[in-house]
Amino acid sequence: MKQRLSKRAAEMTQGGIRAFFDKAAQYPDAIHLGIGEPDFPTPPEIIEAAERALRDGYTHYTPNAGLPEAREAAADYLARYGVRRDPAEEIIITCGGMGAVFAALQCLVDPGSEVLIQDPQWVNYAAQIRLAGGVPVRVPVYEERDFRLQPEELERRITDRTKLLILNSPNNPTGMVLTEEELAAIGSIACRHDLLVLSDEVYCELLYGGARFHSIGAIPEMAERTVIVNSTSKTFAMTGWRVGFAAGPREIIRKMTVLQENMVSCAPAAGQAAAAYAFRHMPNVRQMRAVYEARRDLLLEGLNAIPGIACRRPDGAFYAFPNIRGTGLTSLEFCERLLEQQHVVVIPGSSFGSCGEGYVRLAYANSEEALRQALQRIRRFSPCAAKS
Ligand code: PLP
Question: Is the CB of 171 under 6 A from ligand 1?
Fold first, then answer.
């Protein structure tokens, strides 16, 4: 029999995070700090907007690039950050931020193109780059430098084949937020080497302690080389709705629209109407942010009080990325044993890239009560605590 699977499919592997969730399923009392998903329900106003849309007949295909009102709402939303995009031609509504990243990579990456991503970094970029035939090139970031992307580390890895840089600030998994000055330095490297930038801004509303969000797409010289990705998932607790958007130069958005036509046709119609409402009215965003911030502080204090664990203060997203080297365990051993012995799900830093070894990721998208219990269990578990 001929090989059934395409070479591409044969090479695909499941991300390390999923494997952990499968394993956790056998512990009904497990506390889940693994998944990067808001625990809040979608704000009722947004649900009502979708209900209204369904009653009003938003039950059909929409234009491939999305409903005009959703694109206009996205354009007005971007303008808050100083990004100007024409909703008619420079914005596409996608199936989640994931759909936007996928479409962008398919339209920008040729076989052999190198794409710079930081290490550690959200797992799906590397897989999606490979699906586009590209080569992920990792740029290490270091705890001693607050996991900030260092322009010189970036520049050192640029070759003739480098096409694109993926930026993700606020960052998954480190919680790092790039400053305006850092973005300017990165932007000038992109201009000097004629690179495109995919700026994944899905956590841009989740900033704490006075940190401010800046988009590289707002730098005038970067407008023509930046594709911004954003989503309703994290900001409005809408992960299951699968609505996001991309904004960028029209030549790129036009091709992403053709790709979307041939893949899913369009994002769900009522979800797009709900997204238009959400980006215009921003319901509950401030309240959810305040709750995440209180959880972050609770988790940080608790983690830093456990022998063998040290955690820097993350300024954004909803992840803590503590150093667990003091426990003497690898990040995989730490997570496996913590799950088996104390039924707490956290993710090994090594699944985000080799520079993530020695760290674990905890998502604080869970209640304060659950975080307190998890901290107690981690304290009980910690091999260093046992020695001390
Ligand atoms: N980008 C980053 C950095 C993420 O962490 C995620 C989800 O975890 C996404 C994009 C995708 O989000 P969605 O497809 O739900 O909008």
Answer: no
Distance between CA 172 and CA 167 in Å, rounded?
11
- Amino acid identity for residue 45 in this structure: E
Q: How far is the CA of 80 from the centre of ligand 1 (A)?
A: 21
**H helices of the chain, where?**
7-11, 16-24, 44-55, 68-79, 96-108, 124-131, 151-156, 180-192, 250-263, 269-281, 285-304, 331-342, 368-381, 383-387
Residues of the chain with pLDDT under 70: 16, 382, 384-388
Which DSSP string corresponds to 29-72? T-EE--S----SPPPHHHHHHHHHHHHTT--S---TT--HHHHH
Q: Is residue 97 in contact with ligand 1, taking CB distance under 6 Å?
A: yes
pTM of the model: 0.96
Q: Which atom of ligand 1 is nearest to the CA of 99?
A: 14
Tens digits of residue pLDDT in 235-269:
999 999 999 999 999 999 999 999 999 999 999 99
pLDDT at position 270: 98
Q: In this structure, are residues 98 and 131 in contact, taking their beta carbons and an 8 Å threshold?
A: no
Tens digits of residue pLDDT in 348-374: 999 999 999 999 999 999 999 999 999
Beta pairing class for 344-345 and 360-363: unpaired
Whether the Cβ atoms of residue 28 and residue 136 lie closer than 8 Å to each other: no
Ligand 1 atom with the shortest distance to the CA of 37: 8
